[in-house]
Amino acid sequence: MNIQCPTPAHEDEVVLLGHGAGGRLTEELLDQLVLPAVGGGTGPMEDAALLPGHPGLVMSTDSFVVSPLFFPGGDIGSLAVHGTVNDLAMRGAWPLALSVSLIIEEGLPLSELRAVMESLGKAAQDVGVPVITGDTKVVGRGAADRLFINTTGVGQRHELLAPSAASARPGDAVLLSGPIGLHGTTVLSTRENLGFEGDIASDSRPLHRLVRALAPLGDAVHVLRDPTRGGLAAALNEIARDSSAAVEIEESAVPVPEAVASACDLLGLDPLVVANEGCLVAFVDADAAGDALAAMRSVPEGAQAVRIGEVLREGSLERVTLRTLVGARRIVEMPLGEQLPRIC
User: 96 by DSSP, 3-state: which?
Assistant: First the structure.
């Protein structure tokens, strides 16, 4: 009898954690498998899509698998609301309605599920968006990790705003609404008992009011993006790619809280790739940068807004560079895969 060992599966034949990280592996999964199967793949990959045949209406969907379910500054319930509201906001849309679907592992204490749902309901109420439909499924022990939530949102685009990841232009100012790295380091520290969560908390919060404050600037606002999975590095690389632009940021201008910097030094992480859930990056006309910063700082969500860089008029297209503290330049690469799994 001739017995042969099975051929080991090559890494590109199985799904890896990195395929869900929002970096290059995610791009490959979408481009090579997901989008061809559904007839997509044209145009920029936006945070939310315009509904065909319904001018002004925007739709977005997201799934949340964060571990642990509760962390300083938030939980999976409030995060689910904020994440979907923010994706709508990045297309200049005000949230109109949400759906919520739950996948619950058998054995999850009802007290924890109740706490999550109360937090989700409060977050939706604070935003002012109704939850109008949903679904609930329970799976056996080990078939899921405690609780997964999917939310879908529909929004109405502000008539003065039409931001797109493909709309960055040479000379644009690059603005950031607040510090980076808080969400990812808080969740990781809580999960692994690293101790940093005593000094920091997730920045999870809705950003639709911040975007509304920018609305009077109209078409001077070219791009809005919330740097979630893959952090600021992924967001800027996506914009540079979709806009065929060369983006440069100043290391000294990027606000990194001390506790985030310490955690990243300990773990060997770059703060630029750590996930955020309560800040946005905006590309605006250079002439409107001052007014945009003033508008952002007029609401609590943008009180710490700063200018961090610009779109170069000359340079290698589809590239992001960082001008370091000593004046040198280094390329900011699109993250390859998952450095911090189960962050959102």
Answer: strand
Name the β-bridge partners of 306: 176
CA gap 105, 240 in Å, rounded = 40
| Interacting residues of 226 by C-beta distance below 8 A, sequence separation 6+ | 47, 86, 87, 89, 90, 207, 235, 276, 277, 279, 280, 281
Q: In angstroms, what is the C-alpha Rg of the chain?
A: 20
Q: What SS3 class is residue 100?
A: strand
Q: Which of the residue ranges 94-108, 114-128, 324-338 would you say has the lowest mean pLDDT?
A: 324-338
- Torsion angles phi and psi, residue 301, rounded to 5: -65, -20
Count other C-beta atoms under 10 Å from residue 305's C-beta. 24
By residue count, the chain amounts to 344
**Which pLDDT belongs to residue 38?**
79
Between the alpha carbon of residue 55 and those of residues 48, 96, 136, the distances in Å are 14, 15, 31
Return the amino acid letter for 135.
D
Closest CA to 228 of 277, 175, 290, 292: 277
Give DSSP secondary structure letters for 284-329. Answer: E-GGGHHHHHHHHHTSGGGTT-EEEEEE-SSS-TTEEEEE-TTS-E
Smallest CA-to-CA distance from 310 within 287, 279, 326, 286 is with 286
Residue 338: pLDDT over 90: no
| Nearest-angstrom CA–CA distance, 185 and 340 | 9
Q: How far is it, in rounded angstroms, from Cα 317 to Cα 322?
A: 15
In angstroms, the CA 12 to CA 223 distance is: 33
The tens digit of pLDDT for each residue in 207-223 reads 999 999 999 999 999 99
The single residue listed with the structure tokens 């315009």 is 50
Task: Look up the pTM and report it.
Answer: 0.91
One-letter amino acid of 113? L
Strand order in the sheet with 147-157: 49-50, 57-64, 147-157, 93-105, 131-139
Residue 130: cis peptide before it, omega within 30 degrees of 0 = no
Q: Write out the two tokens for 311.
A: 């779109």
Which helix (H) or strand (E) segment holds residue 212: the answer is: helix 208-214
Separation of alpha carbons 152 and 59, rounded Å: 7
In the block, tokens 């100043």 appear at: 250
Which residue is listed with tokens 């990280």?
A: 21
What letter represents residue 175's amino acid?
Answer: L
